[in-house]
Amino acid sequence: LTSKLPNTKTTIFTVMSKLAQEHQAINLSQGFPGFEVDPQLIELVNQAMKKGYNQYAPMPGLPSLREVLAEKVERLYQKTYHPESEITITAGATQAIFTAIAATIRPGDEVIVFKPAYDCYEPSIEVFGGKVVPIQLKAPEFLPDWDEISAKITSKTKMIIINSPHNPSGTVWTKEDMVQLEKLLKNTDILLLSDEVYEHIIFDGKKHHSASRFAGLAERAFITASFGKTFHATGWKTGYCLAPATLMKEFRKVHQFNVFCSNHPIQAALAEYLLKPEHYETLPNFYQQKRDLFLSLLNGSKFTFTPSSGTYFQLLDYSKITDEDDVAFAERLTTAHKIASIPTSVFNLNQQDNKLLRFCFAKTDDTLKKAAEILQAI
Ligand code: PMP
Ligand code: GLN
């Protein structure tokens, strides 16, 4: 068999979590919360199972969940998505991203991807014959250079993928960035995939500028989101996609054959749980305290950093410690020092100018204290 993805290896999240387990290291590599889901939400899932939500859900998702999402998006971002035709519940954001790409990208189409980028974008494009057009973002700001983006657009550009708050840098796009993007895409047929899985994990009073807020972006955008991030339930693999009806129609043609529907009892539970906005409005504060604790404990260490503005990740610069490449150093930290992180080269961050590892701070205060103790000693 000739591989369709000759350059794709096993995802780093699998590799590092396995290494962490083998060496009994504190695992700040793969991004997942180290604390439990709200017992109230667990109880709602139990009840949904008892009430019989155990067979296939409707293909686009449970109507009550789509309705509550439509209300939430309208309240937060002042944009109306019709639950019937413009919202689909997916098996996590990963499936939403893959489906949006599968439904739109043909061989030879170019897709602009900012690097460093979350690792699922590139293979999803390539498996359908699309060509990734990378744009390197520069540390520590990781913000777009509009002249460079403009220069990369060709007649073959089919899609541009953005991700704010940004994994792995924690950068948050400003309103001005979104306005610039809107201007750039005006009068083009270029689609937008806006990966907004960290929409509720945002710090220092910053605001999430969803693509849905900008008419010129929303009209061409697939917006992907994940309940896993918002409700500490990454293993539930439940998310959703928002898109205008014409795009959603194509999305669902693929969705119905790559998963058909997502987990039914969890959708039923979420439909009720989402009725209370405090279930996600408390997140910025919750995670900002985690970030601040982790960073305060790292003061005086040899690691340097720019505080993350969103997501539950923090990049740490180790250039004062070693010349090793990031993969070698991340492995050594795991095996010898018992702390696992993610090397940023796997997100295709230019390694000539950067010595950065990504650490997940979605952990108990106790775990963060133990992790910081190790990092202080290096
Ligand atoms: N996009 C980004 C930027 C992510 O960080 C993640 C998960 N870490 C996903 C998408 C996938 O989300 P899910 O787990 O809901 O598939
Ligand atoms: N999104 C998570 C991260 O960035 C991991 C998701 C996964 O393991 N596929 O760490």
Automatic annotation (TrEMBL):
GO cellular component terms listed in the entry, alphabetical order: cytoplasm
Cofactor: pyridoxal 5'-phosphate
UniProt keyword list: Aminotransferase, Pyridoxal phosphate, Transferase
Residue intervals of the Aminotransferase class I/classII large domain: 25-374
GO MF annotation terms: kynurenine-oxoglutarate transaminase activity; pyridoxal phosphate binding
PANTHER family: FI04487P
Protein family according to the UniProt entry: Belongs to the class-I pyridoxal-phosphate-dependent aminotransferase family.
Protein name per its UniProtKB record: Methionine aminotransferase
Organism: Aquimarina brevivitae
